[in-house]
Structure formats: structure tokens, C-alpha cells
Write a structure and sequence with these properties.
The protein has 80 residues and is mainly α. The protein is built from three helices and no strands.
Length: 80
């Protein structure tokens, strides 16, 4: 995972973890805040993508149908 680059205010929060996970992470020197932030950023990205695809499902479907029927626009200029 890449390091989070946060500019701006931060908000303290509580996280409840299973004891074994907490102890192993602590023993390994894992930064809890950074790890949680990175995991949440990734979860947000995935969820926003899922919602975008759901919201635009009709457009995606119709575009795919058009391409299947007509082929890719400018396909004759593809070099690969």
C-alpha cells in the first residue's frame, strides 16, 4: 500500500479490533492510523466505483450494445 498523503485536519476516532489482530499488529510495529486510513481510502474508492457503475448501468449497457453492433469508433486507426 502506498503511504497516505493527508493535508488538512484529522479526526480522532475509536476502532474496535479483535485482540489477536491488535496484538500482532502492535508487535509488528504497524501504524494503526495510517493502515486504517489506507484501507478506508481503498474501500471508498471501490464503493464509489461500484455506485458509479450502478448509477450508469443503462448507459454502459447501451454503449456496449452499440459497439457490438457497429464496432469501435475509429477502429480503423488502431495500431494494436
Amino acid at each position: 500500500m502506498a503511504h497516505a498523503t493527508t493535508v488538512g485536519p484529522r479526526k480522532a476516532t475509536n476502532v474496535t479490533l479483535p485482540v489477536d489482530v491488535y496484538e500482532r499488529a502492535k508487535d509488528l510495529g504497524i501504524n494503526f492510523s495510517r493502515t486504517c486510513e489506507q484501507a478506508l481510502r481503498e474501500a471508498i474508492k471501490v464503493e464509489e466505483g461500484r455506485r458509479w457503475a450502478e448509477e450508469h448501468a443503462d448507459f454502459i449497457k447501451h454503449t456496449n450494445e452499440w459497439v457490438e453492433k457497429n464496432g469501435l469508433p475509429l477502429a480503423e486507426y488502431r495500431t494494436f
